[in-house]
């Protein structure tokens, strides 16, 4: 939901939020990466 705030640099703000969310997910153990070899399909 929009808060009505304005940001000087939207790109930097979104990157900051992404990094914060990524860290939260990693701490919860939900940011597991799937590994596969070239040629394999998921």
Describe this structure in words.
This protein is mostly helical and 42 residues long. The chain has a domain at 1-29. It has one helix at residues 10-28. It is elongated and about 45 Å long. This is Phage-associated protein.
Question: What's the short story on this structure?
Answer:
This is Phage-associated protein. The chain is an all-alpha fold and about 40 residues long. The protein has one helix at about 10-30.
Q: What's the structural blueprint in terms of helices and strands?
A:
Elements: H1 10-28
Number of strands: 0
Describe the sheet with the most strands.
none
In whole angstroms, the N-to-C terminal distance is 34 Å
Mean pLDDT: 76
- What's the alpha carbon Rg, rounded to whole Å? 16 Å
Name the overall outline.
Answer: elongated
- Class based on secondary structure composition and strand pairing: mainly alpha
Strand content range: under 5%
Share in helix? 40-55%
Order of helices and strands: H
Uncertain segments of ≥5 residues (pLDDT<50)?
A: none
User: What is the count of DSSP helices, taking H or I runs of 4+ residues?
Assistant: 1
Defining traits:
42 residues; elongated
């Amino acid at each position: 939901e929009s808060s009505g705030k304005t940001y000087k640099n939207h790109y930097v703000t979104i990157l900051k939020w992404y990094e914060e969310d990524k860290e939260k997910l990693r701490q919860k153990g939900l940011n597991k990466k799937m590994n596969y070899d070239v040629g394999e399909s998921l």
